Queue: 2 jobs
Job 1
Amino acid sequence: MSENPYQTYDARILEVKDLTSREKLFTLRFLDPEVEAKFNFKPGQFVIVDIRGFGEFPISICSSPTRRGYLQLCIRKVGRMTKFVHKMKEGDVVGIRGPYGNGFPMEKMEGSNLILVAGGLGMAPLRSVLWYAIDTGKYENVWLLYGTKAYEDILFRDEIIHLLKHGEAMNCSVKLAYEVESPSCIYLEQGFSDRVCKGVVTDLFRGEEFDVNKAYALICGPPVMYKFVIRELLDRKLSPGRIYMTLERRMRCGVGKCGHCVVGTSVSMKYICQDGPVFTYWDALSTRGLI
Amino acid sequence: MRYIKLPSENFGKFFKSLGEWGTLYAPVKRGGIYSFQEVHDPAEIALDYNRTMLPPKKFFFRPKEAILRLKNGRWEEEVEAEPTVLFGLHSCDIHGLKILDKIYLDEPADPYYKSRREKTLIIGISCMPDEYCFCKSLGTHFAMDGFDLFLHELPDGWLVRIGSVRGHEIVWENGELFEEVTDEDLANFKEFEEKRAKAFQKELPQEGLADMLDLAYNSPVWKKYADICLTCGNCNMVCPTCRCYEVCDRWMDAYSSVRERRYDSCFMENHGLVAGGHNFRPTRLDRFRHRYYCKSYFDPTAGYNCVGCGRCDEFCPAKIEHVKVLEEVRGSLK
């Protein structure tokens, strides 16, 4: 591989799938078999997508490293670049560099319970963790608490409903909170009355007992969500060192040079792209501006 | 370290000999401003300059540069570097480069910065502080490494410190130009340094600086100065350690494009803007404070991100003084 960290590698879009009206799932594979063979990542890491002649943007990987041969990215149409990507079709080629960031410490958490708390688009990086946990079977129980706006906004809806139905067999318990009522939601609520409710993601903690000495919480969602979810976890006496969260910042270069993702103060400065994007709550307490 | 002497009468020959190593750049006065320019004759150089507007970082990390070129659908790298001699760097600027090295040479190394750095000879020169300098209080007023040769002014020539193997080679090849250092030279060197140490008018006490600032996160002083600040980003551009950059692709014609990067400033509103409109430093206050935190961050291996060169003060259109802001913040804690 090239020594130039800014060089990207061609990857072909194998499949484009509409997830919602705003999000699409892109399945990619590197054209060069050597690059494909070397490319390995951890759940929670991100890549930089390069649309040649238009620019680059960072995006977290939402597939699991246990499923090799392809790479999946869930891309929301929010700006100029992502709008362009949404027009791309199967067979088109984009550039990819990475993976970047620290990722979740999956090995350290082996044998524990995982509490995944996702809000909206935060489901994307946590999907990687979810499938990793299910595929490896190295974790005792996995909870997924997922807060979404409406039924139409549920990312990976088929997979979520599948897990609602058959998750128990995989030691995986899914709970869903929605904010906007619709016939589909009510139907879902009737089918899984104990696990689907109207409300916000913190409502899903109600009635759940976690063995705090054996559990890790992994959070990803909009900035406003962290404070409330963390309070809920701390109320249950989960140690701040067992609370992991993945953050979104403006990662431009991904390699700790461009300075856009730097947060903190004179005693603790972090490059989100290299020191993160996964941090514990201890990090958040010692680094201002992290959450 | 090896010390030798370059007598005044040999300076011209020595300078000419450096031309064999690469293109020569040195501080030149144009209008009221000093800047590093290509020179061919020692007479062009302003040896007694205070500071250039743009620091020497411009030679390694360019204000605007192409990093990749799109040809036939593929990115081609553009790592061009030619042998260069930077003559007359002050100690603070050498320290500034060391801080940039820490970022740009750390793995994965930036190939553009690295290739230029490797092909550049650094010749330091002693200076006298003016009203803006506060490098002494940050410990950057004297460089122990980071240069090939360092010239200290003596009444009848220069005391030369050799800081690298390349420095040794230059002296070796021009052996006839140099003399051994005498006790008198050393006494003169010491006298100059003592005189220089007394000449500093500004001081930034670094004791507990990082902690003090962290405690003063909510100090009203930040707000006071953020209101005066024009957020023009001048201080970022002229800072020898500021290294934020922005990247964009630019089409040259229908078939080729170039990926360029250029200096960016943390005072700009879109510096912390992410997709979807969330900005993690939305206000002028947030951005103003961030710069001071970034400059006062202490890295155990590279030191502070500020070297006390005084450029941000001299070139600030709002006349905001770095030391004064920090002192007021410190004062507000009491």
Job 2
Amino acid sequence: MRRIGAAMAAAAVLLTACSGGGGAPAGGAAPSGLVVGSTSDPDTLFPWKATQFQAVHVLEQLYGTLTELDADLEVVPGLAESWRVSEDGKTITMTLRTGVTFADGSAFDSADAKASLDRIRDEATGAVAAASLASVTAVDAPDPATVVLTLSGPDAGILAAMASVNLAMLPSDATEQALQATPNGTGPFTLTQRTPNQSIALAPNPAFWGGAPRLPSLEFRVIPDETSIVSAMQSGNVGFAVFDDPLVAQSAEGSGLTVTDTPQLSYHVLQLNARQAPLDNLDVRLAIQCAIDRQQVLDTAALGEGEVTGPITSPAYRSDPAARPCPQRDVEAAKRHLAAAGHAGGLTLAAIVSQGEYATSVNEATNIQAQLAEAGITLNLDVLESGAYVDRWVAADFQTAVALNGGRPDPDGMYGRYFTSTGNLNKVAGYSSPALDGLFAQGKATADPEARKRIYEQVSAELENNAAWVWLFTSFTYTATSPEVTGFRPMANGSLKYLRETSVGGS
Amino acid sequence: MIVRHPVVRRLLEALATLLGVAVLVFVMLRAIPGDQVTASLGTEAAALTPAQRAALEAYYGLDQPLPVQFLSWLGAVATGNLGASQRSGESVLRMTAAALPITLELAVLSLVIGLVLGVAAAMLSASRPNSARDAVGQAVGLAGLSVPAFLLGSALLALSARFLGYNPNAEQFAPLIADPALHLQQLLMPALVLGFGLAAPIMRTARSALLEVRSQDYVRTARGKGVGPRRLALRHVLPGALVPIVTMTGLQFGYLLGGAVVVEQIFSVPGIGRQVLLGIQQKEYAVVQSTVLVVALTFVLVNLGTDLLYRVIDPRVRAA
């Protein structure tokens, strides 16, 4: 308690010290504003190309999407206040909120929505979410409050996909260049000042359709090192941060900050390239799966901070991690599979491992290597700088890959692109089958949530029984807040959407 | 004939060095796997269709042949246009103009700290060689050489925030003119860390130089004439030992610019080191190439300055 008092006193001294000159609005870390510590400056402010976490964190405050996800990752209305899917599933009619404006005051209507969707679909735009709209064949705007999407076939995952800031609604006349300099969205906050590589200051948007946020100001301050962010929180200058290193989270917790763990949609996995010998042999893949104790990987590589997982990580569709061949490690079974594949004498494989992209990769790889060795499989590790890793991963130039892949709330959005034979990441996945193609098509065409759940259980089973990959675990992210911060709800997709409902010190 | 002039020859050498740096940086950046497209999209880049990828490559200028990219960059740089960040659209010249002074200021502060600590420790050590005092001084010097800046920096930051509640670096960085007090507080810890690392080699060089000078005839003569120990140390011994110290300090300037990358990252100081680091992470070719060139230019100029400084402090060099 005394420590916090001292920290506040020091912060107060420093605040008075800095309010003397400059008058930068960042000093608008006024009593009840919130400063978020972020390890990196957003690499782009153009929402359609933003994949970096830090960029997404800022952009989701500034831009609106047609649908949104709630804390349980269920689809809820966004800029579209309701929608109707036709009987045959091929038409989605969305009714837009009226009275919504962009940050510059201009009105948002169906012309903006149509222009946005059409440009995202246009390959020349280079929008990363183009594939999410692959089933859309036409977008119409019959009146200012209505958008009609015509689909080539039913697509039950598209509504969840639309909640991504990569599908943000932009003014129809906005250019990428203009938006990089001056973001212009319909989100709960607007940009007030940006100092590159240092700070992004936001102000609440009083006209936000969901009601003005409670924070009088929100600043994303770039503090490159996670431990430096902890010390910034200890000294009272920063009130909110998201960490992914469990050690950093522990030290934050030890110093009186509130830390919440949230299991993530993203998952750690050993990818197997089942198109290449010897991994085209099911017995070889099953041997690998049986030889690995996933809890051990989690314990040794990630201090046990996380949960063992099956393929689907989204809470609503979560796979049972025990529903698979060899739910417990079984070295004898692994050896039997190996012998059945004609490799009784052992087998040598190679794995690509990224260094630096995330903290646990190399530890995971060496633990897997040790476990496989006991079953007679020698795993040679190719530890690569992250750029080199991504190059080889993208080209599917590997036998096995230790990977951390991003998850999505809807299982079709998450795995359709990997495990259907025409999926745009199928080359990297290295596995597809007519059975999976059929199941994914069925899942897309089914609107009833219960029926969809059963279909994706079968997808999970199909993936696990064929050991397409070896799913390991999901890790946590840690949301650290100073004690006076209330109202924030962390989400499994890492979104900071609920900053709009957050307040500091009961403001 | 004219090239024989030592100063002109130095300038030509400097120019050649810069051209070499330009070629090296350009080639090395492109030899690193991954381009701007994969750097920004990561594994999502696998989902791009060929047309999407082509559109992005054209956007980043990656569709041009390498020699064309190099020459157009060099031509632009020659006219003072360092290019612009693809991400933010900001001109690299403006970014550098904001970041370089901060790093130079940090370097000068560290240099002062390093010199004061290093020379003082060396004088203490050298005044009584092989004594206990000398051993302590040498041990501290060894510690300065062996403790990495990231460790010292993180420890300093964590301890001061935890136990003193003091962490000026968590504030947004204050420009010198806007808020000099906060600005200096923000540079103090990083300068201490860099200065401590710098003090060690300075101390070792200075100690051996001082010992050597002490044994020279003119010092013995002065001592024989009855000059007191303090006056002897400051007026006779120290000036004689300055040349190796200045040489060492000039060389260490490169260390400062390199060390700035780590220290600026830990203390969130928006200097040139962080600009390069971010540029490399994001494969921002224009930012990295031009910034490294500016850093090289700074380094070359400092070395040039050091050379000229010899001529002032040591008459023997002037004759050469």
